[in-house]
Amino acid sequence: MADTIFAVSSGQPPAAIAVIRVSGPGAFAIVERIAGGLPEPRRASLRRLRDEGGATLDSGLVLCFPGPATATGEDLVELHCHGGRAVVAAVEAALATHPGVRRAEPGEFTRRALTHGRIDLAEAEGLADLLEAQTERQRRAAIGAVEGRVSQALRGWMDRTATLSAAIEAMLDFAEEDDVPLDAAALERIRNEMDALGRTMLEAVDRPPVDRLHDGIRVVLAGPPNSGKSTLLNLLTERDAAIVSPIAGTTRDRIEATVLRGGIAYVLTDTAGLAEDTDDVIEAIGVTRAQEAMAQADILLWLADTPPPREDALWLHSRADLPGRGALPDGRALAVRRDDGGSIAALWEVLAARAAALLPREDALGFKRHQQDQCRKATLALLSAPRADALLMAEELRLARQALAALLGISATETMLDALFGRFCLGK
Amino acid sequence: MFDVVVIGGGHAGTEAAAAAARRGAHTALLSFDRHGLGAMSCNPAIGGLGKGHIVREVDAFDGLIGRAADQGAIHYRMLNRSKGTAVQGPRVQADRRRYAGAIQAMLAAQANLTIVEGEAEALVLEGDRVAGVQLADGSVLACRAVVLATGTFLGGRLFRGEERHLGGRINERAATLMAQQLRALGLPMARMKTGTPPRLDGRTIDWARLDEQPSDSDPWTMSPMTASRPLPQIACAITRTTQETHAIIAAAFHRSPLFTGAIEANGPRYCPSIEDKIKRFSDRDSHQIFLEPEGLDDPLVYPNGLSTSLPTDVQEAMIASMPGLERAVITLPGYAVEYDHIDPRALDARLALGALPGVFCAGQINGTTGYEEAAGQGLIAGLNAAAHARDLAPVILDRASSYLGVMIDDLVLQGVTEPYRMLTARAEYRLSLRADNAESRLGGIAEAAGCLSPERLAHRARRLEQRATLRDRLATVRTASDLARSGAAIAQDGARRTAYEWLRFDGVTLAHVAPEAAEGLDPAVVAETLEDARYAPYVERQAEEVARLRADEQILLPVSLDYAAIPGLSQEMIDRLSLARPATLAAASRIRGITPAALSAVLLHARKMAA
């Protein structure tokens, strides 16, 4: 039998209240002992919580949810206690004294929900993101997944794929049956529907993935030594993240700083100056790492006076506050000055515009990168199937089904057979 | 002392007995009646889509069904002729008496095989292993392994309208005692339902009014060992249900044991009774009915598509409402059978019962339907029963090798919720599992198992040599302009490819790339190789999938794994995994409802156990 698990579900104490969730086959029995009797299901009830020795731990609300119609699919209890560290620790300790009861591993509530079929894989991933969401946009994208918008879309595509598969399989496996249309026109219709479905999926999927919402937009500052990269980093982060000095090569390695701005997470990376030839081994390593960072950048801020190495780089005229650098030379997007907050705000505007293009639209379905990859695999199969060859169309539909089933965690063949026998009158 | 005793003389039992004997096991075949061996108790046809594939696969192991089908065939039809060979299904109508006669003759000629008439009453156990079979007359057949191929005879009950009978086929006894013993052993068992249509007297059918379906004119055979078709070929006919038929049936729904609740077991969705079809698809105004002759000198006709358990008077009215059958006489009314089967998840990939070493199960007892499915399981159970008794290597087929592998994997991992029938849609690697390449796919395994006759071995050697010769001849490099000169309509991309590679392009034929290559070779070998070439890109892509599958098959799961102790698995998953006891992680991943998250939990737990 599975263990009964518990965890504080309301964020780390101290806080006004703390919600401790207990889930598993023993949840009711344990709470009955701690709270001295169980309240009616799904009704909040004030109870005194006691340890094994009868000493009062706290008084709080107790809510019981009988499985399987609960978040985890198991019997579930919520204890709403006072949120002091000592209270929470005492209640947790009292729970843990019972055999078969233990503190939940990270993500274990979600995993139980998944394994009991309360949520599917896509929803589980969405939930994990929701719990970790830092920004409002992250939260909304994650909510989208938890509420099953992503799953709903995937399931809808799976249904359509299974239906098309079933139509073809009926032609292949029940050719003798009079219920199965066998003409070239029917085949052509199915093929056209494969195209339509493939295009719908491609349109929904071929958008920036949500991963960047969580990981942050990678902004890399690069240029030759002493071009003002670290100064700019500090201006952007509004703190002294990087050591700034007039000595060339002060930044030996990459420095990363996370900035939340306008609901978007940015990871700013300061790099070692790209010295052409250096005898300093450490500086040479720094340069190599800087080049790697530049290659991986979502947005590259280029601070040199020579043209940038990437066409999409944002070429900045840095240190515009220094004598002789007042005018904006050709090709530069912006000038930044240490003494002008407006120039930094302008840079942020440009960054925000660039970032918006890299993020999924707020109302768009938030697919993760691996979901996109599987969906693209399915799309490729749907769109590349040869025409007028039922067998090869069926093969491509099988690949599409398999790709989608992997995301939804269901059996591809069974789904298709259900569609097959549900729709056609087959068999003699 | 026998090595193997096979209980049951149907398609599973006869195939199992012959296979065990071919592997050198001293074998007894136990049946109520030696003249009933090889009886086709339902429709007089062998093969079809998916099923024809299995016949060819059994034949590649030198099994009986393909050769017997040719000996009895009075009508050949290659289904799906217009589609790719991967889904073409060879099917024959067989003369019932001649088919059974062919099976009986082959069994009589088989070395190491004794036919015993009698009723198996109980298994004799020594500890937890089987030691023999006790007969109803009190005698005992001592043995090392038993194959149970009892068909619908285990706890069989017949239903027709308000009538009830005990038995597996009409007018035959049921093996009730054996069923009780298996239940008492605590084996997981359930009930299943199947049905059969009324039989008609062909002399009372107005054939002239019906559409004819002639036999295929090209001379293909079920088995390559059949030199030519021995019997004259006759036509089938097609009639249809009418509005009147549907009204008659609908008015009698309340008298069908299917709808009154008398039959609770599941029937197959793909072979529904006529009353089921009328009820579920009420929008359809007509269903096709194939009239299949049961023999050359037998007036009986099997109306395929009319399986029913309605009362006799309703069956008579229903038959009379169809064109050409207005005056047709029913010689034996249709009926439904409910019977016991073992949950096949209690079996392993050898079809051996995990709980009772030495006992193998094949055919309807495992919840399948169809002669071909039964014969296929009989073959595998027989080969492995012989292996068990004589300490030989087991014969285990995977999903990438054959329909037999697909079927057994489905059965032992998923179990059954309705009688299991083969469909080509069940095979992921369908493009490479063709009816025409069964010998190439399985010949090596069959040869290694030592179950091929000298004639078959010689045939196989000849085939292998011819295949190699042809591939050699197709290795010559041709340019796009070479092909254009010989009349192929292809893009002039200046490419240089081997003749074999060119054959995958639409419209490119052997005549374009290597007109002489087929000279002196068996047309079947040439056709198979051309088909290989045509689907090569897809087969290569599937080969990568197969490689991944076989890698996961290397990760073994301990038999003793306690799934209930794995945190996070739902009760449903625990049940499914515990019943199927997957041998490998790949097998576990194929069990329905097992999510990737659950799979990683299983793997982690198994690793922890091993550490």
Automatic annotation (TrEMBL), chain A:
Cofactor(s) the protein needs: K(+)
Compartments where located: Cytoplasm
Domain named GTP-binding protein TrmE N-terminal: residues: 4-118
Residue ranges of every copy of the MnmE helical domain listed in the record: 121-425
Main location: cytoplasm
Claim: Isomerase is one of the keywords in the record: no
Any one cellular-component term (Gene Ontology): cytoplasm
Ligand binding (GTP): 226-231, 245-251, 270-273
Binding of K(+), residues: 226, 245, 247, 250
UniProt-annotated binding residues for Mg(2+): 230, 251
Record-listed E.C. numbers: 3.6.-.-
InterPro entries in the cross-refs: G_TrmE, GTP-bd, GTP-bd_TrmE_N, GTPase_MnmE, MnmE_dom2, MnmE_helical, P-loop_NTPase, Small_GTP-bd
The keyword Glycoprotein is assigned to this record: no
Oligomeric form and interacting partners: Homodimer. Heterotetramer of two MnmE and two MnmG subunits.
Protein name: tRNA modification GTPase MnmE
TrEMBL record, chain B:
UniProt-annotated binding residues for NAD(+): 267-281
InterPro entries reported for this sequence: FAD/NAD-bd_sf, GIDA_C_N, MnmG, MnmG-rel, MnmG-rel_CS, MnmG_C, MnmG_C_subdom, MnmG_C_subdom_sf
GO cellular component: cytosol
PROSITE patterns, sorted: GIDA_1, GIDA_2
Xref: Pfam families: GIDA, GIDA_C_1st, SAM_GIDA_C
Gene Ontology terms: biological process: tRNA methylation; tRNA wobble uridine modification
Chain ranges of the tRNA uridine 5-carboxymethylaminomethyl modification enzyme C-terminal subdomain domain: 533-604
Top-level lineage group: Bacteria
Sorted UniProt keywords: Cytoplasm, FAD, Flavoprotein, NAD, tRNA processing
PANTHER family named in the record: GLUCOSE INHIBITED DIVISION PROTEIN A, PROTEIN MTO1 HOMOLOG, MITOCHONDRIAL
Family that this chain belongs to: Belongs to the MnmG family.
Assembly and oligomerization: Homodimer. Heterotetramer of two MnmE and two MnmG subunits.
Name of this chain's protein: tRNA uridine 5-carboxymethylaminomethyl modification enzyme MnmG
Annotated organism of origin: Sphingomonas pseudosanguinis
